[in-house]
Specification:
Strand order of the largest sheet: 1-2
Shape: globular
Order of helices and strands: EEEEHH
Number of strands: 4
Distance between the termini: 17 Å
Structural class: alpha+beta
Length: 65
């Protein structure tokens, strides 16, 4: 799956984003409250921390970037 819904932990705003298959996304700015999301400790990207679907490398059973 290449689409994941990110949920802002600050305001709860959701947005569906297409994940890149060849790069990690370390930062994402919430369109509603402008909080900059960063991966939680132990996660490789914002999709693994705040997304409805983990990033493509993790889905494939590999380590991330």
């Amino acid at each position: 799956m290449l689409e994941s819904t990110l949920t802002c932990p600050n305001c709860g705003h959701t947005t569906t984003e297409t994940m890149p298959i060849d790069a990690c996304v370390y930062f994402h700015e919430c369109a509603s409250c402008h909080t900059v999301l960063k991966p939680l400790a132990g996660d490789c990207c914002v999709f693994c921390s705040y997304g409805s679907v983990k990033c493509p490398p993790i889905q494939a059973g590999n380590s991330c970037c």
